[in-house]
Amino acid sequence: MTRGAIGGIAAGVLLLLGCSVGASSGDEPPTVPRASVDAGAKSEAVSLLRSGTEFIDESSFRVDTDIGGIVTIRSYADNVKRRAATKMSASGRVIEIRMIENAIYMKTNVDLPGVGKEWMSLDPARVPSDFALSFAPGKNDPGGSARLIDAIVTARIEGSQVAGTLDVTRMRPGNGINFQPNPGETFPDTTGSQPFRATLDAEGRLVSFVIPEANGLPSASLGYTDFGAAVEVVRPEDAVAAPAALYPQLGLGG
User: What is the pLDDT of residues 68-104, one digit of tens each?
Assistant: First the structure.
């Protein structure tokens, strides 16, 4: 592929998946929506989006992430009861993660040196901080909506939607959508004005955040559903202690 790397639950997870999708080498013209540069409009829109994500700390939910039609991630989370399950898929390679209280379990069919294909129990103290596995406020959204909101440059409210642009280079690594350039390359300046459109439901909750394909980057989207539904996470039977070889391969250093 001729595109840069994109991230999922954490940027390094998709590096584990070996996925390489992102900025292309073509000279596509920028596609930027007309957005208000009024600071007051942006502040009002951003405030609306932040209030629309308060459910993350208050209710269970499901979030589906799609990046370029290549990486798909489905996560169920209940941060109140400290339960979460995520399954990531890319080109037939899969990573599954389950979290119950302080316990973290992982299984993958990705060929990792020194790592088997069975369920593993991870030592939380050895998991790199950029692997982003946490129930802590601000780090507990598998969709990573806060990181997207923080990267917004312009925004305006359009009924139940918010439209505008965000700066991809301001997107901190972490859960959800990540874009990374190819090694030795940088993003074009146009990615500083990447279009987006977010939708809120009748109760004011964020239900979708869509970044269309533009400026050499693939499309990416988040969809939040199943608010308040029970999240059942089964502790894997016969999980083995994760080998020491796994931890250096997690996170951005993976």
Answer: 888 899 999 999 999 999 999 988 889 999 999 999 9
In angstroms, the CA 169 to CA 152 distance is 11
Q: What is the pTM of this model?
A: 0.85
* Measured distance CA(60)–CA(149) in Å, rounded: 21
CA–CA gap between residue 90 and residue 202 (Å, rounded): 33
User: At 105, is the secondary structure helix, strand, or coil?
Assistant: strand
Q: Rg of the Cα trace of the chain?
A: 18
d(CA 124, CA 18): 24
With beta carbons less than 8 A apart as the criterion, state whether 28 and 213 touch. Answer: no
Alpha helices by DSSP H, listed for the chain, are: 11-17, 39-51, 145-150
The answer to whether the CB of 49 falls within 8 A of the CB of 206 is yes
Q: Within a 10 A sphere around the Cβ of 77, how many other Cβ atoms?
A: 26
d(CA 115, CA 99): 20
Looking at the DSSP assignment, which residues form a beta bridge with residue 225? 62
CA distance 40 to 241: 52
